[in-house]
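pinging the channel bc i need a second pair of eyes. not urgent but kinda urgent?? the chain im working w is below, pasted from the shared doc
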Amino acid sequence: MDRDERGEGALGSGVVVWGMVRMGMGEERRLRKAEGGGSLEAQIESLLNVEKQMRLNGDVAGTRKAAIDILQLCFEARAWKTLNDQIVLLSKRRGQLKQAVTAMVQQAMQYIDETPDIETKIELIKTLNSVSAGKIYVEIERARLIKKLARLKEEQGQIAEAADLMQEIAVETFGAMAKTEKLAFILEQVRLCLDRQDYVRAQILSRKISPRVFDADTSKEKKKPKEGESIVEEAPADIPSLLELKRIYYELMIRYVYVSFPFLFFGHLWKHSFFQSPVFVHT
């Protein structure tokens, strides 16, 4: 048997790595388990070597798959600290691909609701937040993470901290975020400011929304974008409809005006045609 038949030669052990990749990282992981593939650390180390080879060769799909497999290993083992460490490690590797970082953040966000306790959940969110900070290609994911963290802070009675967290994000500049998700985020910012009695900040934030936006045609967002334009993502399932957001907006404005100008604009807001509609009357 010559050197080529043995898979040796100029590429050396690299052929073995590429062979594992060709049969699929998932299959390789299953084979390692079937053979008693060692500890979690050993399996992660093996996949880190594969990730490095793929990254240095510019293989986007391979790098993304290896990174996700590492996170999945940690999740299946319920090794939450190791999961956080690997997210940070992978994101900081030299020349790490944007697509791999995006895939890691999106994958790890699915684990948030599976965490065993509130401390572990907050730690995972903070890890993902630090990894996505300053990266435009995961700005929407970071906004969703901040919103989750602010909600947890609010549940713990830390209204001021929740409001400060939400104000870190300016979603009105996110071209790829759905309009309804932007509106819901800004309205949440306004609500938290009102809850902490910061009426000046609440007014500033509310001015980012024009009442006319609630009458716009949302179907325009679904049109195929022109060259150079951002592709607008679908809003998550928990985002209210445009009509519901309109109701929330006017309720928040009534709260603000009632405290700041109780006799000046309250009547004007109440007479708005929306409040005479059956949608508002019956809610």
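so The CA atoms of residues 146 and 166 lie 6 Å apart. and The longest helix spans residues 242-260. — does that match what u expected or am i reading it wrong
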